[in-house]
Design goal:
It is a single chain. Helix content is about 35%, strand content about 35%. By secondary structure, it is of the alpha+beta class. It is rod-shaped and about 90 Å long. Strand 2 (about 60-70) and strand 3 (about 75-85) form a beta hairpin. It is built from two helices and four strands; from the N terminus they run H-E-E-E-H-E. The relative contact order is 0.21.
Length: about 110
């Protein structure tokens, strides 16, 4: 009987060691995984002053596709897509940087 209980105890210690080792491996992998960054996709209607207006660049802001859209009477506006990191860039910042714009669409991604 003592031999069996000693064998069970050794197995449970081995199982405990294995479990702790696997848990440590999991925590290590989890720690290396980058944190999820909240982002939004924003579609802006931009009405620049002229054809030489600079495009804004900022950390957390990526400009995407753009197109000229007729407004009326031969006037066109620039419609531009961008992706922002929510903690770094918001629509209020974009509105400050761009003199005349309307928010056409806003989607969390």
């Amino acid at each position: 009987p003592d031999l069996i209980s000693q064998q069970d105890q050794e197995e449970s210690e081995e199982a405990k060691r294995l479990r702790e080792e696997r848990l440590a491996q999991y925590e290590s992998k989890k720690a290396k995984k980058p944190a999820l960054v909240a982002k939004s996709s924003i579609l802006l209607d931009v009405k620049p002053w002229d054809d030489e207006t600079d495009i804004i660049q900022a950390d957390g802001l990526v400009w995407d596709s753009s197109k000229l859209v007729p407004v009326g009477y031969g006037i066109k506006k620039l419609q531009i897509q961008c992706v922002v990191e929510d903690d770094k860039v918001g629509t209020d910042m974009l509105e400050e940087w761009i003199t005349s714009m309307d928010l056409a669409a806003f989607n969390k991604i």
